[in-house]
Every structure is written in C-alpha cells, then in structure tokens.
Amino acid sequence: MQNLIQSRLRRARKTRAKIAELKIVRLAVHRSNCHIYAQVIDNANGRVLTSASTLEPEVRKELSSGSSIGAAAVVGKRIAEKAKIIGISRVGFDRSGFKYHGRVRALADAAREHGLIF
Predict the structure, then answer these.
(1) CATH topology of domain 2-113
(2) What is the tens place of the pLDDT at every residue in 25-74?
(3) How far apart are CA 61 and CA 47, in angstroms?
(4) Which of 14, 31, 41, 57 is paired with 22 by a 20 to 30 Å CA distance?
C-alpha cells in the first residue's frame, strides 16, 4: 500500500515541478473514496486563491453522493465559476498523481466547459 502512495506522490512532484516552471497558478485536485476537492493555488505566494469540494453545503444539497462522476462535474463547474470571479482564466492542471480518467477527468472537462483554460 505504501508503494502505491509513494508512486502517486512521485508523479505529483513531476507535474508540480513543470507547472512551477511555467509560473502560472495551478488547479490542484484531490480525490478520496468519498469526496473530491479542487483548489486554485498561487505557487509564487503559496496561497490558496479559491476552492470547491463536495463537502460544501450548496453542493451537498444537489448530490446524493460525493464520490460520483456527476459530483466531480459539479465541483469542476463551481471551481471554474469561482476562479472567473477572482479574475483567473488560465491554470495548470495538477491531478496530484491520480490517473486522468473517471472523476478527475469529469472535473477537468467541467472546468474547461465553464471557462478555465489549461
């Protein structure tokens, strides 16, 4: 089990290093068994600019489960809307070492549809 976690974190380090080279804010995604979380992070200042997750009360009202592809799409839509409000349209996508399919892909597609460019 520990090797799986270490492998995921190794992949995440590579992605974060590339995004840091580009000097743009990053859209970091974390996936657990029950929920999905997204944050827009400014690497230069080390600050979280905005975030969205399936734990937010507004999101929980419209979902029966936080661990579905539909829930990930709702979080992707919310993070894109929140980023546009603070004036961010271009981000680097940090999938945190998770495979790009299922919930991670659904979140990314929804964020792209609602105005984020990556």
Answers:
(1) Nucleotidyltransferase; domain 5 (3.30.420)
(2) 999 999 999 999 999 999 999 999 999 999 999 999 989 899 999 999 99
(3) 28
(4) 31
